[in-house]
Amino acid sequence: MSTHLLKRILVLMTALIINSCARQPDIAPSPTANRSISSTPSELAPHALHFYVEQLTRQLLSTANDIDLSKTVAVGTILPSNLQTGNTLPHLSEFGLQVQESLLTLVAQAGLKVVEFKTMAAIKIGDNYDAMLSRDISTLNPQVQADYFLTGTYTELEDKTVVNLRLIAIPANTVTAAATDYVPSNAMWSKTKVVLKSNQIYRGS
Questions:
Q1: What DSSP designation does 84 have?
Q2: At residue 191, what are phi and psi to the nearest 5 degrees?
Q3: What is 7-46 written as a DSSP string?
Q4: Cα separation of 81 and 125, whole Å?
Q5: What single-letter DSSP state applies at residue 192?
Q6: What is the pLDDT of residue 88?
Q7: 132 FRET partner, CA 20 to 30 A, in 40, 70, 117, 120?
Q8: What are the Cα distances from residue 150, in Å, to 28, 35, 118?
Q9: How far is CA 40 from the centre of its chain?
Q10: What's the gap between Cα 49 and its chain centre?
Q11: Going from the N-terminus, what domains does the chain have, and what CATH number goes with each?
Q12: Across the strands, what pairs with 197?
């Protein structure tokens, strides 16, 4: 990687960190925020899911080798590591979808050119909404023009989820950057679904 390109990536990452710090709530960071996070049923994750995806994004960009910031990247859904093609997504499908959305936001803020391949050819106007994105293949362009694919998998453990990301250069299919980290299993809990009983925190249905 050239010195000029490395400096450019470091500047983008610094801007992302500063922007993120300005948005973070006034909560003392956990000493295990980045590695080997352990959360039990009696405690909430110290941060929301987006925080942990941001740590993964920083790690991913810091390991990038010869990435061309002028080229485009498509961000895919993060899927279970044991998912077989064509099978229905498991109960944690919302997890993979939200990680995808956070990744798309973060890499765009870092300066990469993100391809939104879910954009419809025309805006669909309903009675109470205007839709511009879709997962219906018949309304989308079947050909995705991108120079990089950002994708990954997750694996559920007892009290945490391991997330693995990789940036793949197309058409060589070589891994340009990779990142792995842990996310507390309750990072997506809604505060409205959490109840305190006898000094213990319980998740509602």
A1: P
A2: -60, -30
A3: HHHHHHHHHHHHHHHHHS-S-PPPTTSSSS----TTS--S
A4: 37
A5: G
A6: 54
A7: 70
A8: 31, 22, 15
A9: 23
A10: 9
A11: 3-26+47-203 (3.40.50.10610)
A12: 200
Token pair belonging to 135? 């997962």
Where would I find the beta strands (DSSP E) of 94-140?
Answer: 113-115, 119-125, 130-133
Encoded amino acid at 128, one letter: N
Q: Is 118 helix (H, G, I), strand (E, B) or coil?
A: coil
Greatest mean pLDDT among 41-50, 66-75, 80-89, 146-155: 146-155
**153's tokens:** 């998998």
Average pLDDT of the residues in 127-143:
78
Contact 170, 61 (CB under 8 A): no
- Average pLDDT, rounded, for the chain: 75
pLDDT of 55-71, one tens digit each? 999 999 988 877 888 89
CA distance 199 to 72: 50
CA distances from 53 to 95, 97, 100, 178 (A): 11, 12, 9, 13
Q: Which two tokens stand for residue 138?
A: 């018949």
